């Protein structure tokens, strides 16, 4: 099997595809393909008229519909099967429709980068995940992005097109863009505007490595900012290149094995094309520059091919070199065995629900290629008062106590969250991912009662907030918010609608009090509500009062709401 990009016009569905129904329903695929492109390659085989799609007919259909919207889908990534292998084609089609890989762009980047950090080559990573080398390189390009930009994409603050263009920006440009993005009074450029912003052609004086006194041409100033710009690009590059050459010579004199000077504006992928290598081990220095004259210097890298050659030579010297061994099974044969063993194990698992429950929870906690379960982040949207109120709530404190008990029950160290599946390279130190198999063994030792306790916690921790399901569960479980929550300063401060505040006052204090204060400022009316809720300042406490906003299902005070 090999991977390649094939023209859309040369692809058609194969008659043996196991999906016989639902192939025309692609509404669920269109949004993700618009945003992320085609993540998983089609499985195809050659025929007399081009290629037939064994697995991925729905993605082919979606790409056909989207081709008029964007030119990106004129060619599609494809895994090409060997000729005449119907059995493998059917098995692969079955696997495609039973087990998909639900990883988004960032998940893939972290997974690929973790392998690249361990010395895996691009082609090896592509082979492991069954994707093209081009897709691996595209995802590894995200390594050049600041973590804050990746977080902004994950939080849906920026779109996929903006993310991809930002991979071409230097670290300095990324920081400048982030500053605009985070400033509510500014508007950071996105999509096509971002490209013009990054590569507008003007060369800022601050990017010069040389003494400005050597530049004998006019310099123009931004009348509305502090930056100045060179007017003679040819003279700038003459002086800049001389300064770059001097820096390169300085690194060579300092003992670095070599200095690689990239062409101005040359695209390269640091994790895809190079490997980390210390100076003492023969590491090199990379000097790169962009169209705006900004220079980046990266120390301690080695071309992948050179790194691989050195590893082979070292192994030969040590007597540990092992020539590549031909696999006993071909890839199609390996797939055949994997699928049949998988089929036998999963059908037997159906008869052992107690084991299946433990396996289910182990996957939810540790994750796998087919699982992505994350704890609800409880994002307060940068409202410090709300975050502080939540942190001190009775319900939140009780949940933390249960988390500590669950961690002790399973025998795990303290973690920010139990369900927090992300690839290894994404985790903070001390919060690394768990070994799925070892976790399953631990859970297998628990009693059914303890196992149900763990299962309940995992579900509760990964329950999404702000959905109708919370209303349904609150009603089903007969949740009384008065047991877990009392109105606090943050709650009152967030009330803004004066008509709703007056209606709330009428509910807790009666019509006479509400009408008597209808012209009072909202702040005054909220204070009266607080007095009745707490029984202070001469007001009789309204026992059992609960704002309608805190009921299940959630209520309201105004018909127009």
Task: From the structure above, extract its key features.
561 residues, alpha/beta, Conserved hypothetical protein from pyrococcus furiosus pfu- 392566-001, ParB domain, 5-stranded mixed sheet, 4-stranded mixed sheet, 25 helices, 47% helix, globular
Provide an overview of this structure:
A five-stranded mixed β-sheet has the order 1-5-3-4-2. Strands 9-11-12-10 form a four-stranded mixed β-sheet. Among the domains are: 2-102, Alpha-Beta Complex (Conserved hypothetical protein from pyrococcus furiosus pfu- 392566-001, ParB domain), CATH 3.90.1530; 233-318, no CATH class; 352-465, no CATH class; 481-550, no CATH class. It has 561 residues and is of the alpha/beta class. It is built from 25 helices and twelve strands. Helix 3 (86-98) packs across helix 14, helix 15 (353-366) runs parallel beside helix 19 (448-461) and helix 17 (394-410) crosses helix 19 (448-461). A hairpin with a 2-residue loop joins strand 3 and strand 4 (50-55). The protein is globular and about 85 Å long. It is 47% helix and 10% strand.
């Amino acid at each position: 099997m090999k991977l390649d990009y094939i023209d859309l016009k040369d692809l058609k569905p194969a008659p043996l595809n196991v999906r016989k129904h639902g192939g025309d329903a692609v509404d669920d695929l269109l949004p993700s393909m618009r945003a992320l492109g085609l993540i998983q390659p089609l499985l195809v085989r050659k025929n007399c008229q081009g290629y037939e799609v064994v697995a991925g007919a729905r993605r082919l259909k979606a790409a056909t519909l989207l081709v008029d919207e964007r030119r990106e889908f004129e060619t599609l990534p494809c895994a090409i099967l060997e000729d005449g292998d119907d059995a493998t084609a059917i098995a692969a089609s079955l696997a495609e429709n039973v087990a998909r890989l639900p990883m988004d762009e960032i998940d893939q980047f972290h997974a690929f980068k973790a392998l690249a950090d361990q010395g895996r080559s691009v082609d090896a990573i592509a082979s492991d995940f069954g994707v093209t080398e081009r897709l691996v390189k595209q995802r590894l390009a995200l390594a050049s992005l600041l973590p804050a930009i990746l977080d902004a994409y994950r939080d849906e603050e920026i779109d996929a097109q903006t993310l991809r263009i930002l991979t071409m920006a230097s670290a300095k440009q990324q920081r400048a863009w982030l500053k605009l993005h985070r400033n509510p009074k500014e508007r950071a450029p996105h999509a096509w505007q971002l490209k013009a912003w990054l590569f507008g052609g003007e060369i800022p004086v601050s990017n010069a490595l040389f003494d400005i006194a050597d530049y004998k041409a006019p310099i123009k100033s931004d009348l509305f900012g502090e930056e100045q710009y060179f007017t003679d690009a040819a003279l700038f590059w003459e002086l800049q290149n001389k300064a770059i050459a001097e820096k390169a010579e300085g690194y060579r004199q300092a003992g670095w094995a070599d200095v690689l000077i990239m062409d101005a504006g040359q695209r390269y992928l640091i994790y895809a094309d190079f490997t980390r290598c210390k100076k003492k081990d023969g590491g090199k220095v990379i000097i790169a520059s962009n169209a705006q004259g900004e220079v980046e210097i990266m120390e301690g890298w080695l071309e992948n091919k050179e790194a691989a050659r050195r590893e082979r030579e070292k192994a030969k010297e040590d007597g540990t070199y092992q020539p590549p061994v031909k696999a006993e099974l071909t890839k199609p044969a390996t797939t055949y065995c994997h699928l049949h063993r998988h089929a036998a194990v999963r059908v037997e698992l159906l008869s052992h629900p107690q084991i299946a429950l433990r396996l289910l929870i182990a996957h939810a906690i540790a994750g796998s290629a087919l699982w992505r379960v994350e704890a609800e982040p409880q994002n307060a949207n940068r409202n410090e008062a709300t975050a502080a109120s939540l942190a001190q709530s009775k319900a939140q404190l009780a949940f933390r106590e249960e988390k500590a008990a669950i961690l002790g029950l399973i025998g795990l160290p303290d973690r920010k969250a139990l369900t927090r599946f992300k690839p290894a390279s994404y985790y903070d130190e001390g919060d690394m991912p768990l070994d799925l198999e070892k976790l399953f063994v631990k859970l297998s030792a628990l009693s059914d009662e303890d196992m149900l306790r763990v299962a309940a916690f995992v579900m509760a921790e990964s329950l999404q907030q702000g959905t109708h399901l919370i209303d349904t569960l609150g009603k089903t479980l007969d949740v009384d918010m008065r047991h877990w929550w009392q109105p606090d300063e943050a709650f009152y401060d967030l009330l803004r609608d004066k008509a709703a505040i007056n209606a709330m006052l009428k509910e807790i204090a009666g019509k006479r009090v509400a009408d008597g204060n209808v012209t009072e400022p909202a702040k005054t009316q909220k204070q009266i509500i607080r007095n009745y809720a707490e029984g202070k300042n001469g007001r009789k406490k309204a026992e059992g009062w609960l704002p309608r906003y805190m009921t299940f299902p959630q209520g309201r005070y105004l018909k127009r709401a």
